[in-house]
Every structure is written in structure tokens, then in C-alpha cells.
Amino acid sequence: MADKPVQKLNLEAPVEAPASTAPTSAADIEALLDEHQNGLLRYAHRIVRNREAAQDIVQDAFVRYLRKPLSYGEPRQRAAWLYKVVHNLSIDLIKRESKRGDVYDKVEKPEVTKMPVAGLLASEKWDRLDGLLAHVSDDQHKVILLFFQEDRTYKEIAEITGFSMSNVGMLLHRGLKKLRDIIEEEGRNEF
Length: 191
Description:
Blueprint: H1 26-48, H2 51-67, H3 75-100, H4 117-133, H5 138-149, H6 154-161, H7 165-186
Helix pairs in contact: 1-2, 1-3, 1-5, 2-3, 3-6, 5-7, 6-7
């Protein structure tokens, strides 16, 4: 067997960084913000139940992204990363606030405004759904919101929450079963 010649490394040649799919221009960042801001705000608000805190959390998530943008992945992976940061920041806020005992005092009261009839009915259904979701565990609540409201896949929910994909499926299944049982118990079939 003949010896193969050893190739010498050229340490002085410029090393090219891998191609990045991360937004680099202001237009790219603005598009990322436009695409995900509302969903992230809804998700944070559902967890912390305070509009201003949710806005601060989402702003902080985007600032963290701008400081160190992901240099890998597809756009859906960036979205999952943003949701995970918002999730973690929301949970951290709740932990901090619960230590102070101020969580329940800071729950935002809905503003009373005139709504068209269709909007009123939709609002009543969301209020009803919020009441029902209070009967499931926090983990089930988060998974249900991410799946139905934010249209996230099991894999994305797993990345956001840190649960395994099978755990996401189990939480979703058990949470929906519990909601169905409550609705049937009340004798209403509104949903």
C-alpha cells in the first residue's frame, strides 16, 4: 500500500464563513418583525396577562436576536427561536412577580369599548375559551395556544417549550380531552 502525500494546510488563506440565512439588512429585520410580532405578542400576553409586559418581552426578544442573530436555519427555525425566547422571558417574569406576590394585582382588565355584534360574539367566545383554559394545566394551556392560536407544529412547540414531541402530543391530547369533558359536563356545545 503506497503512502498518500500529506496535504499541508494553508493557514494564511482567508476562511469563509458559512453562508448565513439570517436577516442582515434593515428590510430583512423589518420583515421578520412584521411577520412574527403579532403572534409573539399574543403568546406573551396569554402567559403574563399584561399587555405592557408582553410588549416589553417581545421587544426584548427581538433585541436579543439583533444582538446575536441566528446564523443558521430556515425562517421557521428563527421563528421557533423567537417563540422560545418569549416563552422563557414570560416564565421568568411570572416567577419574579410571583415571588413578590404581585401577579394577581397586575392582571390587566379589559377595556370597555363598543364592538360590532360579530366582534362581540367573537370576544365572548374568546372569553369563554379563556375560562375553559383555566381548567387545564399550565403546560397544556401553553401547548394548546401554540398549536391552535399560533399554528405551530409539534416540533416547533417542542423547541419553544423544551418538551419532547411525544410530550407535546400527550399534553395537547389530554388538555383537549379535559376541555371536551368540561363542555359536555356543562351541557353546552358552543365550541
